[in-house]
Amino acid sequence: MTISRRDVLKSLTMTAVGGSVLRVIPLEAAEYAHRMVKAEKAAADTHAYSPKFFSAHAYKTLQSLCNTIIPSDEESKGAVEAGAPEFIDLLTSENKDYQLTLGGGVMWLDSACRDRYGKVYLDAAPEQQKEILDLIAYRKNAKTDPGLGQGIEFFSFLRKLTADGFFTSEIGIDYLGYIGNTYLQEFPGCPPVPDR
Amino acid sequence: MQVKRTPKTYDVCVVGSGASGGTAAKVLTEGGLSVALLEAGPPLDPDRDYKEHVWPYDLPHRGADIAGRARHELNDEFMAPNGAWEIEGEPYISAPGSRFRWFRSRIVGGRTNHWGRIALRMAPVDFKVRSHDGMGDDWPISYEDVAPYYDKVESYIGVFGTKENIPSAPDGIFLPPPTPRCTETMVKKSCDKLNILCIPSRLAILTKPLNGRAACHYCAQCGRGCKTASNFSSSQVMIPPAEKTGRLTLITGAMARELIAGKDGKVTSVSYIDKATREERRVNARAFIVAASACESARLLLNSRSTLFPDGLANSSGVVGRYLMDTVGSNAGGYFPQLEKMPAHNHDGVGGMHMYLPWWKFDRKNDFLRGYHTEFGGGRGMPGVGDYDDLCDQVEGYGISLKRECKKKYGTYIGFAGRGEMIPNENSYCEIDPTAVDQWGIPVLRFHWKWGDNELKMAKDMQETYREIVESAGGIFIPSRLEDAAHPHGIADGGVIIHEVGTVRMGEHPKTSALNGFCQAHDVKNLFVTDGASFVTNADKNPTLTIMALTWRACDHLLDEAKKGSLGA
Fold first, then answer.
1. Where in the sequence is the domain holding A162, given as residue range(s)?
2. How confident is the model at residue A18 (pLDDT cuts 50, 70, 90)?
3. Rounded-to-integer distance, Cα B443 and Cα B40, Å
4. Residues in contact with B79: Cβ distance below 8 Å, sequence separation at least 6, in sequence order
5. Mean pLDDT of chain B
6. Residue whose C-alpha is closest to residue B525's, from B501, B552, B554
7. Sign of CA dihedral B296, B541, B43, B249
């Protein structure tokens, strides 16, 4: 690319200043610049992600959990393809509270699995994994077994961050069917709301 | 330390570059005066600072910002740099038993970068509350005094809306309103059944090109900064024309510390800390406009003590810091199953509501005095971090069932926000904390806060009304999450609605007010306080439009005085 985004924006801004008192870029220019940014991003090299906080083992566990929380189905890919583990690892690397809840949470899960099944979560059989997740995926289970409290807290927070990671991705946004973030001349209104 | 002086004497020095300071800079420089404009924050660079149109997945933290802080507070990654509840090194204190939060924007344009652009005129009765219901005080000016300035402001900044002839919500000079969204027509139908007014909203967003600015392109992202300046901010709309006159000197990173009065009782200079060098500097001027935001302006006056003004500048009445008001805020929501059947569609629109509920019970006796308006919104917006927290807690579990439930519920929620008038009370005020200073050595504010009974009754009415509207529309009501012993009926803590006003109020009498009807200090003739501090009451109208109108009017008065040769004389 011979001309950088900054150059484009700069020249657009200067042109606009020549024609107007206000530091405003015209609509077409704004849209053009935005497209350039997207193209640049797309052209950039994509490297395999190396975790900033989680150990290799813990990161694999995180990926597995993300995949279980929001999996692929016939309608769309899931949280792992949407980059949720990378997103969660980055945030956790920067936040001490998250390090306790999530970093500690993965270790709690492995300990709980070792106690119950004699092996860590990733090595447990699929039905064992399902059993422990079914215990920590619902708050009401803490009432019958208070020893699950920490696991429930961990899973509840991980579920939210996984949803964040999935629904803010291109995959998640397409899956929801959000249409917008565009440049319209007029706002057309919406289709009519069906009665209940 | 040596104090550096700028030898030049400006005609006017304006402290603060937000709605009020920006308006002052424009009106005064265009009127021929030289102006020094002080801003405590850095300059704003739309190219660098605006985030408009960037998808969450194009940001390193998806808009969650560093350490996920956006999940807990406002942030800069996804939004324009528009302010914060806490500023490092610049604390404020809530007195024991008081809960008050103070939102500040240290950047050129101030809180207009954050403002929801809701531009509502105060009604005639809002200026004369004591005459009407016996509570509080009347303003020394009337709607008729301010109306020509509402006209000027609306004509210049651009406000959309419709003529409705509603006594509680005077019409203005309006651009055409945008087409309502389906969520809004649905709420309107319900309101019609209940005889509740629901009309096109009035926002400072252009639906037609105006004064060199392009019309809105309907991306719903005003809060992320608008590169086409189709929404209003002081930084993009007020300050550029002032700069064009060649008479504006904008000084950023300038934290005003004290106004210095001469022996004749007039202000001669403002002392400020240059944040970059931590040195103290001064700007000399013939007149001063304090527009640092209601509480910050009160702080500056209270910190400007001298033998002539032992209780702070322009405070012989003792009212500075008193009569602190915010807006009564209580929120609720609704889930609307019929919205699950909506086909995918562009629901963005402008960066705010296309319709709202003005105060509609002005013609009857209510359980409380004064009124409130209601803002509402929801539907199929751009997904963002934190959007699925509540649903995740509600649905629990994991897997395809969770994924599909999230999709099914997408765009089916509408939130309602009541915004009502608070009556000032003696328990709500700010003062200088006796011991604490900020990192610039400037004594900080301590806030005292208590809602009155009238406010609590109003919040109750909001919750009841939103339940009726939601249920009559076929939805399921979601009451305020905030409701607990400290927040009856979900009333927000003081300051949270970010409509602080009243701390340097105007009035007829110098014994009970600090300013005259032109925002000019009774005690110090070359000093004006033109921001929300000057308000006598805090009507249910968001204060910004009135702040700009009062500032324009004060500046016209100041220009008249300058023409007569009495400026700073």
1. 56-176
2. very low
3. 16
4. B51, B223, B224, B225
5. 95
6. B554
7. negative
The rounded distance, in Å, linking the Cα atoms of B218 and B327 is: 29
Of A159, A168, A187, the CB nearest to B349: A187
Note whether A37 and A62 are same-domain residues: no
Amino acid identity at B17: S
Q: Are A38 and A65 in a shared domain?
A: no
**B568 to chain A, minimum CA–CA distance in Å?**
31
Residues A144 and A117 in one domain: yes
Asked whether residue A9 carries a pLDDT value surpassing 50, the answer given is no
Residue B290, helix vs strand vs coil:
strand
pLDDT at A17 over 50: no
pLDDT band at A192 (very low <50, low <70, confident <90, very high): confident
Residue in B closest to A169 by C-alpha? B57
B520 three-state secondary structure: strand
Q: How far is CA B372 from CA B56, B462, B463, in A?
A: 35, 8, 12
Does residue A137 share a domain with residue A103? yes
Regarding whether A95 and A20 lie in a shared domain, the answer is: no
Cα angle B22-B25-B26, degrees, rounded to a multiple of 5? 90
Total domains in chain A come to 2
The DSSP H or E segment spanning B413 is strand B413-420
Please tell me whether residues A28 and A79 are part of one structural domain. Answer: no
Residues of B within 8 A of A155 (CB-CB) are: 398
Query: A83: which chain B residues are within 8 Å (Cβ-Cβ)?
Result: 57
Q: Nearest-CA residue of chain B relative to A176?
A: B407
Query: In the prediction, which pLDDT does B3 show?
Result: 65
Residue A193 located in a structural domain: no
Q: Within this chain, do residues A74 and A164 fall inside the same structural domain, yes or no? A: yes
Residue A22, pLDDT score? 40
Mean pLDDT of A19-41: 51
Report residues of chain B scoring pLDDT below 50.
569
Interface test with A, best of B51, B62, B406 (most A CBs within 10 A): B62
Please give the residue of chain A at the shortest CA–CA distance from B387.
A164
User: What number of H helices and E strands is found in chain A?
Assistant: 10, 0
ipTM of the complex: 0.89
User: Which chain B residues have a beta carbon less than 8 Å from that of A46?
Assistant: none
Among B53, B77, B108, B472, the strongest candidate for a mutation testing the A interface, having the largest count of A CBs within 10 A, is B53
Question: Closest partner residue to A172 among B339, B348, B383, by Cβ?
Answer: B383
Same domain for A133 and A100?
yes
Q: Do A168 and B67 touch (CB under 8 A)?
A: no
pLDDT at A53 over 70: yes
Instruction: Check residue B522 and give its pLDDT.
Output: 98
Choose from B45, B50, B57 for mutation: most chain A CBs within 10 A. Answer: B57
In a domain, A26, yes or no: yes
Q: Percentages helix, strand, coil for chain A, rounded to the nearest 5?
A: 65, 0, 35
B1-44+81-115+233-326+425-451+501-569: CATH class:
alpha beta
Beta carbons of B55 and A183 less than 8 Å apart: no
Mapping DSSP onto H, E and C, the string for B435-458 reads: EEECCCCCEEEEEECCCCHHHHHH
| CA proximity to B129, closest of B467, B551, B538 | B538
- The domain segmentation of chain B, as residue ranges, is 1-44+81-115+233-326+425-451+501-569, 163-230+328-420+452-490
- Neighbour count for residue B32 (Cβ, 10 Å): 12
Chain B nearest CA to A3, separation (Å):
16
pLDDT band per the 50, 70, 90 thresholds, residue A29: low
Residue A48 lies in a domain: no
Quote the pLDDT of residue B130. 97
- Are residues A160 and B217, on separate chains, in Cβ contact within 8 Å? no
What is the rounded distance in angstroms from the CA atom of residue B504 to the CA atom of residue B291?
A: 11
Is A188 contained in some domain?
no
